[in-house]
Amino acid sequence: MFIGLVLVGLAGCKDNKKKPDDKPVKPSKPTFTVQFNGDSAYQFVQDQVDFGPRVPGSMSHGICANYLENKLKQYCDTAMVQFGSATDYKGNPVEIKNIIGSIHPEKTKRILLCAHWDTRPQADEDKKNPTEPADGANDGASGVGVLLEVARQLQIQKPDAGVDIVLFDAEDMGDRQGSPNSWCLGSQYWSKKPHKQNYVARFGILLDMVGPKDAVFAIEMNSWQYAQPYVKQVWRTASELGHGKHFVNYQGGSLVDDHVFINRILGIPTLDIIHYNVSDNSGFGDFWHTHKDNMSSIDKETLSAVGETVFKVVMDL
Ligand code: AHN
Ligand code: ZN
Prior knowledge:
This protein is of the alpha/beta class and 317 residues long.
């Protein structure tokens, strides 16, 4: 009996013809390894900080725009700058540069990755020099640094999905006491007039203040409202990679950030990965809108936790 089974088994091996009851074999996706270099991401943050505060209209802002466009040209299939205009809450005109890189621009299955690249014109939560801008290492440069490194890795291991990396300008010129619309001028502009007509993506991930040591990414409530299944997917992926101490399973704030305008205006479900700790003052950490927001507030391990998670989510699509 035993020998008989073995013989049948061997005979089966020789026979390449598919038996009628064989289940169709699903073509498996090529495997990938999760790759993200924290040193490289850190350097991308440093590069931006070295230009000086990227306050809209300033020389540093203009030079950094060129740098970001060139980086996206280097790592993506296409890159462009979307020029726009807006008015800040004081009534002054603001020239907007949204910087956009696309991988597989022809594909219909797409994911949107975004961050703001501008620096707040004043560190107004600081008692000292509140009218001067901070370096904006966390608030601005950290999310961009992670996305540049994700783009670099996606050039080495190509994703199946199309990817759009959109770096928003003029996020941080808002009035804390005023209208929510005073924030996120670049993303408001892009959401009303995306770089491609009828632009769609399956979902979007916004990175904001993703650099602090021991950062906690509490679940932001607008993300939960608009993009719940994707919040679950991203937080599950992070925990699989061992980053559950950052991607915690508790409720954070309900925050006005770029994703809110993408959700409300464009209708692409978009979530925000943002450091938010309910137990501190502003929630955003003591560096927030102060001069402590410099390179010393950036931790490579946090950048890597976020970058590996985003990379895996993209490759799994
Ligand atoms: C408000 O404070 C209204 N929103 C937080 C958005 C923000 C500011 N992200 C970075 N700086
Ligand atoms: Zn800010």
